[in-house]
Amino acid sequence: MDALLEASNLLHQRVQRFALGDRDDSFVGLALDIARFQAEASEGFGRLVRARGAGLEALDDVPPVPTDAFRLTRVATYPAELDAVRFFTSGTTGAERGTHAMRRVDTYELLSLVYGRQALLAPQSSAIVVALAPRPTVPPSSSLGYMMARFMEVFDGEPLGELEPRFDSASPRRWLLNESGVDLAGLDHVVRVASRRRRPILLLGTAFALVAALDELAGARLPLPSGSAVMQTGGFKGRTREVGMEELRRGVSQAFQLGDRRVVGEYGMTELTSHLYEGTIRESALFARHPSAAPGIYFEPPWLRVTPVDPSSLLPVGEGEVGLARFIDLGNVDSAVSVVTQDLVRRTGGGIELLGRQAGAPPRGCSLAIEALLDG
Amino acid sequence: MAERRARVERLLQAARRLADAQTAEGRRLRERLHETSGLSNANIELGLTRCLETSPSSSELDELLASTPEAPRAHVLLAGNVFVAALRAAAIGVASSARVAVRASRRDPALIEALHELAPGSFELTRALSPAPGDHVWSYGSDSTLAELRASLPRGVWFHAHGSGFGAVAVDARSWSPDDARAIALDTALFDRRGCLSPRVVCVAGSHPQARAVAEQLAGALGELERELPSGPQSPAEAAELRRQRDAATYAFELFEAGSAWVSLSSALAVGGGGRSLHVLPASDVAASLAPWAAQLTCVSSNDLELRRQLSAALPGARLARLGEMQRPALDGPVDRRHPPHGELV
């Protein structure tokens, strides 16, 4: 086990250097080295590699692990007693929830912060960061909540005023969704503090919470200071009201008096370490790389590659065609470097278009659908 | 009572003609099922000759009539179901009332239409059900369909919701014989494991190595049976689902190839994925291991009398069967006992 841990630690270091711009490694080389490590360290992944019957010589040789596996078993290259955190999927339709365990969180934090800054802020700038999300639990169980807390610490780090005399990312003043709903009074307070200090706000919100905020505002407006932005993420699984993402974007931009392009979509999932963002914030590094970035197009960081694949063969589909999202995520050193979801995507304009979830096979008969047993 | 019995028997008479491959109606039905059921011809034939309940005993019929409430009108909504299930649903309908309306499954209306043709007047086929207070409605299908239907029913209707479920097998490793593998494979392969009686999990009272031996033999039996009883054609969506489930099972469990399906093995509580796959689970207390699924289990088969006794106490909603007999439950009422026989008053 010591040798495997050492190998894992070396891979973490290489991934972190790669994320910081060091190009001694290539994406493909690193991905294959991680896959070979996982084939040795993870019995399940080893079985998947042998079942496919190919070596690990090219990216398409790496068998993607279905997200279902995270609900059926532990997806990790090391024993559970070494877990530093365990993040759980947020599904509400079934008893089994998926788990993504991590032995070390520094790689997760670095990758989240590097790319989050590139997508949401101007280089070197800061903002008052608050979240329309519930306060994270201790120990943390939501990867999204964990990431939001890190954004508060690193992109902000300043006290919120008389109600939060010392900076505290766990302060209830920063987590504006609780059992009673959206804390609009709290948000209003943050807006007043930001306006006084002439600082922009970065409001992090799940789609569900943003809809709840719009409902609560009931047509009223709560203008955010100039330069502010909203990061919207997540879906509506199991919730009572669904709103199209573009409709939500319009509603949010009107309610908070922001331009459409300052409402930025983030795509992530518990089973991944890395995230995708829309590149619409003009002063951001991501926009500088993709000046024609349109809303609805998500961009990967250099350490994540999304490939639309055929649902049956899991091989890449033709240029511009729709396929299931296969992620090769260098951040998943200790879990699954390649993951396939049921989300449909298409490559377009240098980025990825998210097209919703693949409908399952039409149910036949009364045999309990596997989804009902697996869905988390 | 005599009238009700006569109505059921008239339906059974029609069913016997349809099960007989020598009759013109039987031949026509087979051709139709080839188009609608999604099963191979061999599976259709076995379904008609082995699983269609055409000859219940007198006491089974008594039980069917006793467990079915009488109603001014009965309404039956069929699912895109295991095709033979249409007969039981119609029989319960006519046992309940002389006025029966049946809405067939759009996907597979073959058997109910054939029964209607041969037993005209037993029930009416309709495109929309319109129950009134006091009527009874039997509905079969997915839980979401049932919830939608329930929400649309007027107050005062009695609702019998037969939603999704699955079967399980419990075997004692000490009394296991190689023939048991063949019997379980048959229960699995019939109707390509689409039925709510179809087994998805095999719980082995014994050690992990004993469970592994059972899993290996099951995989062999499933593979062998597939040559005699091929699977129906797969749509691209079904193929993709199977691929995903197989890969997830490969990652999560020890896997044994079983023709086009697989048998997985682990100590984790899990059920088989798509197609004819099964999950094998070693257990020291079989009834306790299956208890978390009590609400979903429709049928449990076993090779051991003592196990059957334990399961009967732990899983009162499930029908108990012998190995190889899961797909031919007696025509003595609904297939399982998970629901109150009088229904739920809306």
Search tags:
heterodimer; A: 376 residues; alpha/beta; Rossmann fold; 11-stranded mixed sheet; two-stranded antiparallel ribbon; 15 strands; 32% helix; B: 346 residues; Aldehyde Dehydrogenase, Chain A, domain 2; 2 domains; 7-stranded mixed sheet; 6-stranded mixed sheet
Count every helix of chain A, treating DSSP H or I runs of 4 or more residues as helices: 11
* Rg of chain B: 20 Å
Share of helical residues of chain A: 25-40%
Q: Report the biggest beta sheet of chain A as strand number plus sense, adding barrel if it closes.
A: 11 strands, mixed
Query: What is the CATH homologous superfamily assignment of the largest domain in chain B?
Result: Aldehyde Dehydrogenase, Chain A, domain 1
Structural class of chain A: alpha/beta
Low-confidence stretches of chain B: none
Based on secondary structure, the structural category of chain B is alpha/beta
Could you give a quick summary of the protein structure above?
With 376 residues, chain A is an alpha/beta fold. Chain A has two domains: 1-76 and 303-376, no CATH class; 106-290, 3-Layer(aba) Sandwich (Rossmann fold). Helices cover 32% and strands 19% of the residues of chain A.
Give an overview of the whole structure:
- The complex is a heterodimer of chains A (376) and B (346).
- Chain A is α/β, with parallel strands linked by helices and 376 residues long.
- Chain A has two domains: 150 residues, no CATH class; 185 residues, Rossmann fold, CATH 3.40.50.
- Chain A is 32% helix and 19% strand.
- Chain A is built from eleven helices and 15 strands.
- In chain A, the strands form three sheets. In chain A, strands 1, 4, 7, 8, 9, 10, 11, 12, 13, 14 and 15 form an eleven-stranded mixed sheet that branches. Chain A has a two-stranded antiparallel ribbon with strand order 2-3. In chain A, strands 5-6 form a two-stranded antiparallel ribbon.
- The radius of gyration of chain A is 21 Å and the shape is globular.
- The two termini of chain A are 31 Å apart.
- The longest helix of chain B is centred in the middle third of the chain and has 21 residues.
- Chain B is built from twelve helices and 13 strands.
- Chain B is of the alpha/beta class and 346 residues long.
- Chain B has two domains: 163 residues, Aldehyde Dehydrogenase, Chain A, domain 1 (3-Layer(aba) Sandwich); 157 residues, Aldehyde Dehydrogenase, Chain A, domain 2 (3-Layer(aba) Sandwich), CATH 3.40.309.
- In chain B, the strands form two sheets. Chain B has a seven-stranded mixed sheet, with helices on both faces. A six-stranded mixed sheet of chain B has the order 3-2-1-4-5-13, with helices on both faces.
- In chain B, α5 links the parallel β1 and β2.
- Chain B is globular and about 55 Å long.
- Chains A and B meet through α3, β1 and α11 of A and α10 of B.
